[in-house]
Amino acid sequence: MHIESKIVHGGQHPDKVTGALAPPIYQTSTFAFHDADHGARLFKQEESGYIYTRLSNPTIDLLAQKIALLESTEAGVVFASGLAAIFNIIVTCAATGEHIISDDTIYGGTFAMFKSVLPRLGIDVTFINTADISRLQAAITPKTKLVFTETPANPTLKIVDIAACAKVCKEKNIPLCVDNTFATPYLQRPMELGADIVVHSMTKYFSGHGDIIGGVIVGGKELMHRAWDIAKEIGGCNSPFNAWLVLRGLKTLAVRMDRHCETAQKIAEHLAGHKKVEHVYYPGLPSHPGHDIAKKQMSGFGGMIGFDVTGGKEAGKVLMNSLRLCTLAVSLGDVDTLIEHPASMTHSTYCDGDLEKCGIKPGFVRISVGLEHVDDLVEDLEQALSKL
Ligand SMILES: Cc1ncc(COP(=O)(O)O)c(C=O)c1O
């Protein structure tokens, strides 16, 4: 089946009893046992079944299964947020005294967790540019339990060669986890390139409508069972209604992503030729250093663009304050176009030195291109740029 058809039908069937095409929302905290022995057997995992929604729930399981299918893998665990999903996979793979490697250009919340929270648990983190394969090889120690990367990376759209990273990780028997939030499985499937775990903030393109927070990890059955065992004790589960909203949002993922890509390409090309713009970061531009790798591992370049305005941070502020159609807000992957300033917003957890190391300049702005008409977006950007 093509990915477009899998997105619509994958893992989903009409309800056996009623024929309902849309999945039921099992909005319940608990599930009744047939008798005391049945309850005990479920708790001992001698029999499968539902106990309590923090442990599992049919609507949430359907979503986890569907995402696993879309990412070409076996199983998944859904969480209250993307960050909860990332925290869970880290503590599933690494314990006190052990070590992980992370790319240095990642979402600012993930960076803060790796920089400030994991060391408190005794988990060491080495930040490197995972696009540099020799640096990756050199950073691995006998204590390394996970390699974490994000591609395209938030916010600079840096591209990491997933297959090349996976090869190094396989040689050392270390799992590779890829945050695939920016691309979605419609544009990129890291498991097919050798990754072991994929993580998503479902808050973004999966939901697509900016109305929920959620996260998911997917991977092999055994690893996901271990992740679930920890997840149920940490308690960061999502709600059946949110899972249902993501299931509904997912149905239109392919058409939304096609439009996001098409509009973003046009806007990136327009900005690249603008005299008030110093640099455009978009993997669909041949000038982007990761363009060739992106072409190899993605079927489209996505809906995220970064650019440096002439005049630095102050000019960036004027631009953002002058926009009428684009909304000044964090998050991404929504129907609405959103614009933000990473250095003072999503990546304010980075110090100036870290920002510079990752190439995030003071005047760098990030746009999540929405589904408005491209001409209206260009016109809005034009009138705001004319204020600089
Ligand atoms: C690439 C990426 N990963 C993870 C997250 C965290 O997701 P959430 O906000 O759902 O916790 C974000 C949030 O912006 C993100 O951009």
Write the layout of secondary structure elements.
Layout: H1 3-9, H2 36-43, H3 58-70, E1 75-79, H4 82-93, E2 99-103, H5 108-117, E3 124-128, H6 133-139, E4 144-150, H7 162-172, E5 176-179, H8 184-187, E6 197-201, E7 215-219, H9 221-234, H10 240-250, H11 253-272, E8 277-281, H12 291-297, E9 304-309, H13 312-322, E10 327-328, E11 338-340, H14 352-357, E12 364-368, H15 374-385
Parallel strand pairs: 2-3, 2-4, 4-5, 5-6, 10-11
Antiparallel strand pairs: 1-7, 6-7, 8-9, 9-12, 11-12
Helix pairs in contact: 3-10, 4-9, 13-15
The structure holds pyridoxal-5'-phosphate (PLP).
Pyridoxal-5'-phosphate is lined by residues 81-83, 107, 109-110, 150, 154, 179, 181-182, 201, 203, 213, 215.
Describe the structure.
By secondary structure, the protein is of the alpha/beta class. It contains 15 helices and 12 strands. It has 2 domains: 248 residues, 3-Layer(aba) Sandwich (Aspartate Aminotransferase, domain 2), CATH 3.40.640; 132 residues, Aspartate Aminotransferase, domain 1. The strands form 2 sheets. A 7-stranded mixed beta sheet has the order 1-7-6-5-4-2-3, sandwiched between helices. Strands 8-9-12-11-10 form a 5-stranded mixed beta sheet. β5, α8 and β6 form a beta-alpha-beta unit. α3 runs parallel beside α10, α4 packs across α9 and α13 crosses α15. The chain is globular and about 75 Å long. It starts with a helix and ends with a helix. It binds pyridoxal-5'-phosphate. Pyridoxal-5'-phosphate binds next to α4 and α5.
